Backbone:
């Protein structure tokens, strides 16, 4: 009896040992991969922090109340950047005003109405290609179409339209994803109550997709505020102290101002602090807008959780 | 004995693409009675249910043949608006699916779109619907709270209240208790018993005891065909067809 028991237990013990070895190997492998993904995440965060810190240390001395509220003086070697801040705000919100309705409408058509087929595939490929077009090409298109052909001139309107087309794929993509993430059961529930398809989309599906659409808008705002090439020929003025009076006026803009100071200014070395200060202002502006949008998104998400 | 028939299906075939999901279904549904549709998974009972409020319209490549009459009118006639049909034939789904809105807004959502704007009427409607769904006492103080905070059983009764708020004539229920615990299930079954005074109810269920408990008529489906249809009592005690008996006694399915 006793011997039998021992014989029974022995294979068990060896099996246990192998198990422990396997577990050890598994544990090591897990630690290794966990370390790798952690490293990747850290690298990204550190890069971002690095850029922001670099700008901050080089630029914060240039930032002052006067810098933010005055126009440039002395051939843009002194003074502030207020017209460029205002211009960038106009252009960014102009771009969102163009891209948001158009992009959301396109996404609704693509996900909710269109029957899958060749035509839709072509539209989708078109949207993706648009996302891959270099921004200077948008600038040239804007120049040719909005500035010259439609006679908008170099203006907030032409710049906003150009930037709007530039960020359109971002908005469409984010909205499509957001709409697809809304459970099918919401659509069914609404339709089964005898409401029209449009009402179901407008009152149930779209509100549930708002947080996702806002994410797309945040990305779009960042892109629109930071682009130089698309506004170079369509909206941005080298220098104008006057604030725009209508959407047909030229404006200064932060990214273009940095570009001008850094490449074509009167004294490039002397204005270095102003360049960093302007870049820091641009980043702070975008982060500020994003922060507001993220807070609003958080509130909506809480209300619309399912 | 001639029953008062509210929905008639005559020789209905239904296809998902080339797959024939229903073949030659002929069945009548009596007014203000509960009819249960039973059968193993994939037998077509839910498909048939979704034909009555034209929910299958949403599926690409779906096709209906035959005739379905609601109050004597063909609901698949070209001049019929499916939105109109769905206002008269409500539906409750397998999983509770309230909207991510307040309890109040869940119920008033469809009535508002149908044109009821006056606040007092809406409030009265909410109270009436919730009382009918036996949920009023539990939620009357939290009407502004999100429906997502309710329990599964409460959510399902809210979905029933939401359907009732449109004052339909027929209520289609697609396995309404399969996602619920036994106590919530018992409440819904009691509710069905109460509702049949005013509504015609067609219920798909996998639970044969449930069919036996709540329904007056039962149809047994198998691989897209209506095998047997009759009074629930008869189907469950002395079915005519061997297949029905096998299913009911648990020999397959």
Residues:
């Amino acid at each position: 009896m006793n011997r039998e028991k021992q014989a029974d237990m022995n294979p068990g013990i060896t099996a246990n040992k192998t198990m422990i070895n396997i577990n050890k190997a598994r544990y090591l492998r897990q630690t290794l991969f966990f370390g790798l993904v952690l490293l990747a995440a850290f690298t990204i965060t550190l890069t971002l922090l690095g850029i922001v810190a670099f700008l901050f240390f080089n630029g914060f001395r240039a930032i002052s109340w006067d810098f933010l509220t005055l126009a440039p003086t002395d051939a843009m070697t002194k003074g502030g950047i207020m017209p460029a801040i205002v211009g960038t705000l106009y252009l960014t919100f102009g771009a969102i005003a163009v891209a948001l309705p158009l992009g959301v409408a396109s996404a609704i058509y693509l996900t909710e109405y269109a029957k899958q087929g060749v035509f839709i595939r072509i539209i989708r490929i078109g949207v993706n290609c648009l996302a891959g077009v270099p921004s200077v090409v948008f600038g040239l298109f804007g120049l040719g179409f909005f500035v010259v052909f439609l006679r908008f001139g170099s203006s907030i309107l032409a710049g906003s339209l150009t930037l709007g087309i530039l960020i359109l794929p971002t908005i469409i993509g984010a909205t499509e994803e957001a709409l697809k993430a809304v459970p099918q059961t919401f659509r069914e529930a609404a339709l089964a109550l005898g409401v029209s398809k449009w009402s179901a989309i407008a009152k149930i599906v779209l509100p549930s997709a708002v947080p996702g659409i806002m994410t797309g808008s945040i990305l779009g705002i960042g892109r629109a505020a930071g682009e130089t090439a698309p506004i170079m020929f369509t909206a941005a003025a080298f220098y104008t102290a006057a604030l725009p009076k209508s959407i047909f006026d030229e404006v200064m803009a932060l990214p273009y101002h940095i570009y001008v100071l850094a490449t074509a200014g009167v004294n490039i070395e002397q204005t270095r602090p102003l360049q960093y200060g302007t870049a820091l202002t641009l980043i702070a502006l975008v982060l500020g807008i994003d922060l507001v949008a993220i807070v609003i998104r958080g509130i909506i998400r809480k209300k619309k959780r399912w | 004995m001639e029953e008062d028939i509210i929905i008639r299906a005559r020789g209905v075939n239904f296809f998902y693409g080339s797959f024939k999901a229903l073949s030659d279904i002929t069945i009548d549904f009596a007014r203000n009675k509960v009819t249960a549709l039973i059968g193993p998974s994939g037998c077509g009972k839910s498909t048939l249910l979704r034909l009555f409020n034209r929910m299958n319209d949403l599926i690409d490549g779906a096709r209906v043949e035959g005739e379905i009459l609601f109050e004597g009118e063909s609901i698949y006639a070209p001049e019929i608006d499916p939105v109109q049909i769905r206002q008269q034939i409500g539906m409750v789904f397998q999983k509770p699916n309230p909207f991510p809105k307040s309890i109040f807004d869940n119920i008033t959502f469809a009535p508002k779109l149908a044109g009821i704007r006056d606040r007092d009427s809406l409030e009265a409607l909410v109270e009436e619907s919730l009382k009918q769904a036996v949920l009023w006492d539990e939620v009357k103080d939290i009407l502004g709270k999100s429906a997502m905070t309710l329990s599964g059983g409460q959510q399902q009764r809210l979905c029933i209240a939401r359907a009732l708020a449109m004052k339909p004539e027929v209520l289609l229920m697609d396995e309404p208790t399969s996602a619920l615990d036994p106590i919530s299930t018992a409440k819904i079954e009691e509710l069905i018993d109460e509702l049949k005074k005013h509504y015609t109810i067609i219920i798909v269920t996998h639970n044969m005891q449930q069919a036996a408990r709540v329904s007056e008529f039962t149809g047994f489906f198998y691989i897209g065909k209506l095998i047997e249809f009759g009074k629930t009592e008869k189907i469950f005690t002395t079915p005519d067809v061997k297949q029905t008996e096998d299913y009911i006694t648990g020999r397959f399915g």
Notes: The CA atoms of residues 128 and 165 of chain B lie 8 Å apart. Chain B has a mean pLDDT of 92.
